[in-house]
Design a protein that fits this description.
With about 200 residues, the protein is an alpha+beta fold. The protein contains eight helices and five strands. Strand 4, helix 8 and strand 5 form a beta-alpha-beta unit. The longest helix has 19 residues.
Length: about 200
């Protein structure tokens, strides 16, 4: 319990270690339940998988192996030990819980916003989407919304005709497809609005 508590004061790639371990534990429990495996054991393995990142002393061992040794010292079950030691492929997986812990660890680390470099990569991708649209003549502004799954492009009605707006939507979507890496699909919406404004004095 003391070592698990110490995780609260550690972070890995900008992700709080205790929050990450709890998230992995919950994901492991869900996956184990779906597969008809021991839910409590999977949850325990998920919670303890990074225990080697908060040791009492700092031996020259990978955290997965160190975590396995620490858990063994406290009398953890073999399935939990194997899951801790194998979650970065440093030892061979011998139980069904081990690949679950490995997969759930990867899911927790890879979700948007989980880790610092993920956030930086996400912001960079959003900026690239907007800059790509802004490189066209007649585009007034561009906004990547829906976590980068939609690009709204506002064009100047005086410079861009209705037909050109349609062409622009197709051209931008083709460039995104060929030049950028993105998850799923990106919807490109070009908005051309003509406003007539007069004042009665």
């Amino acid at each position: 319990m003391r070592m698990v508590g110490r995780m609260k004061f550690r972070s890995s790639y900008g992700q709080n270690l205790l929050q990450h371990s709890r998230e992995v534990a919950n994901l492991c429990a869900i996956m184990a339940a779906e597969l008809g495996l021991n839910v409590k054991l999977a949850k325990r393995a998920g919670l303890l998988h990074d225990i080697g990142k908060v040791p009492d002393e700092e031996p020259e061992l990978p955290h997965a192996i160190l975590g396995m040794k620490i858990a063994e010292k406290f009398g953890e079950k073999g399935d939990v030990l194997n899951a801790i030691g194998a979650h970065h492929d440093e030892i061979e997986m011998t139980t069904l819980i081990s690949p679950i812990v490995q997969v759930c660890d990867a899911i927790s680390g890879a979700r948007p916003g989980a880790r610092r470099e993920m956030v930086e990569a996400y912001i960079k991708r959003i900026k690239e989407l907007e800059n790509l649209a802004l490189s066209y003549d007649g585009v007034g502004s561009a906004y990547a919304i829906q976590a980068g799954r939609e690009l709204r492009v506002m064009v100047e009605a005086e410079k861009v005709s209705d037909q050109r707006a349609e062409e622009l939507s197709f051209t931008i979507s083709q460039r995104i497809q060929t030049e950028m890496t993105y998850p799923g699909q990106v919807k490109v919406t070009v908005i051309r609005e003509k406003r007539a404004v007069n004042y009665a004095k």
